[in-house]
Amino acid sequence: MERLPTSPGERPARGQAPPGDSSEAIRTTQATLEEWAFHQSPCLLAIFGTDLCLLRVNEAMERALARTQDELRGLRLADIVPGPSGEETAGRMRTVLETGEPRRAEAALRTADAGPQAGRPVTLTPLKDGDGRVCGVCLTAQDGLEDPAAAERQNAARLKDAAARLGTTLDLGRTVQELGDVTVPLLADLTAVDLMDFPRSAEDTSPAAATEPVVLRRAALRSVDTRDPAPASAVGGTTAYAAASPPVRCLVTGRPERYTAAEPTFGRWLEHDEAAAYLRALGAHSLLAVPLLTGGTTLGVVLFGRRRDREPFGPEDVLIAEELAARAAVSIHNARRHTRARTTTMALQRSLLPQTLPDQTALDIASRYLPAGSQAGVGGDWFDVIPLSGARVALVVGDVVGHGIRASATMGRVRTAVRTLADVDLPADELLTHLDDLVLHLSVEEGSATDPAAETAGGIGTTCLYAVYDPVSRRCTLARAGHPPPAVVAPDGAVRFLDVPAGPPLGLGGLPFEAVETELPEGSILALYTDGLLEARDHDIDVALDKMFAELARPATTLDTVCDRVLTALLSHRPDDDVALLVARTRALHADRVAAWDLPFDASVVADARHYADSQLTAWGLEDAAFVTELMVSELVTNALRYGRPPVQLRMIHQGSTLICEVFDSSSTTPHMRRARTFDEGGRGLLLVAQLAQRWGTRHDRIGKTVWAEQSLTTP
């Protein structure tokens, strides 16, 4: 009697007849059949021991892996199938050993005849002895020899399901890459998306256009071949397709074009044209070119290629490719339109925001602006730094409701209005009141009840924080319209919110705005921001506030470092809303840079005022400015005595390379320049001041006014 195999490595000869009829022979025949069933099964089988090392495989597995059992024995699955899928399946095998329950793993077995991204699902079954102990694991997979028609139907169903994933975002790069991910390897071994830089209408793609080469830009390339493509085929590069090439013919006809290597036209192009190098490298023998069409506009072409080990494209493939290309074309068109609109909006917004911060010495300032990363588009946040009279500086942060170009345009109008109102030195609460009236008027002019965007276009709901810091008194006056309160960091590192009454957002009307005044020691840090900084999706507002306070309290050599720390701590991704951040450290003008004199309400005091000014300039070492300063002081004091009311005060401020002369009186009458006639005795004072000063103006207080003139010094 022939000895039957007793070890895993021994196999009975195929077709050998089972021995005699004895019970021993019956048992032997059963063992022989079991061995034959294991080795000749069309299923892929592998047995692993309790140490997860491979013990044996059948012939189907050997063919699938293109390796013999002797080469595989003793290897772990992660060595046979390198990569994440092998590691994950090995972990499931350990779970099978521990629990004794079968498990399934998708795309776990990558075989020699599949692409690098393709993997077969496997079933992991525990092998138990008579006592129920798990002694090994059997890995089972189908060999893929199912009915070709059924396989095609299954692929078609998968493609239709996958088509629903196209166009999930307005990101152009991701949209075209999704088309490649969906179609490789289900439909093709290679998918290339080539787009026109300037899409053509149906009238432009006439047959006459076929006489000239067409330059297309490679937007996406997906292939089962993992080697780097030729430089001419790299994503982002351009390719000039000859007039008679399949891609150009597809663009001209506006219909799918199907080719095989047996066709002379396609064969010559594939063999000799450098633009087809990536198809030659793939070993393509079948090509399907489908135009990307939407709304009568041609956006480009998508090329599908198959290698020689697959059937050429058939009519059913053409229908599927057309449907996928149509979906992709709509998504590409929308993504391009969104990109253009976003680019235009961002360009407009950048032009409306401060390009550089103005020169001033009252505050050290740093700022950051981050546009929104969401599909809603760029919003209408803004910030501003406005030098005022008397060495003061205004800080502004605001947020217009809505997104897109209309929000940016509204932001520009509101920001211009704030600068105009600040230029006339309105108090903070009065400025917001005037701004509220302006927004109400804008909303009436902008739209009607039939326009759903009318309210936001007019700026209704806009929030704003307006602060004015005076380096002489070291006091800051603030008012806000529905905006988050500012944070202040004391020189000792203590952080707190300033208690500024909220007030309603602009354009709602009915409620007054209230200003508060607080003293800020020299070296204090003031942080103004928009709500996009605190409304991150991955944490609540309390956590965001704690993080912001912690970063503001950390010592830093520069305010740019403070801004970067705050943004890094609070934003782990592109913000969903615009973020504006304005950080300022206070400086102070000490007594040696400010001089003030109370003047009697008498015409004879003009000479004394000139003397006071001359003496102070000598003390500051500014004798060269004495002549111009005495003239301006004389004219300002004379006007106050002639047209104002007591008390009268003269104040001089030396701030860096700037000298400021101010005269206060308790009258609220605003002085005006007028054209003096030849024989008029007055009317030339303010004209002279305007000629001598770099800038001048009037600042109204609760009681009285201050007329000021500012001149640049030739020496600091």
UniProtKB/TrEMBL annotation:
Keywords: Hydrolase
InterPro entries (alphabetical): Bact_Sigma-Reg (IPR052016), GAF (IPR003018), GAF-like_dom_sf (IPR029016), HATPase_C_sf (IPR036890), HATPase_dom (IPR003594), PAS (IPR000014), PAS-like_dom_sf (IPR035965), PAS_4 (IPR013656)
Keyword Nucleotide-binding among UniProt keywords: no
CDD domains: HATPase_RsbW-like, PAS
Any Pfam family the entry gives: GAF
Region entry Disordered, spans: 1-24
Domain PPM-type phosphatase: 360-586
Protein name from the UniProt record: SpoIIE family protein phosphatase
Top-level taxonomy: Bacteria, Bacillati, Actinomycetota, Actinomycetes, Kitasatosporales
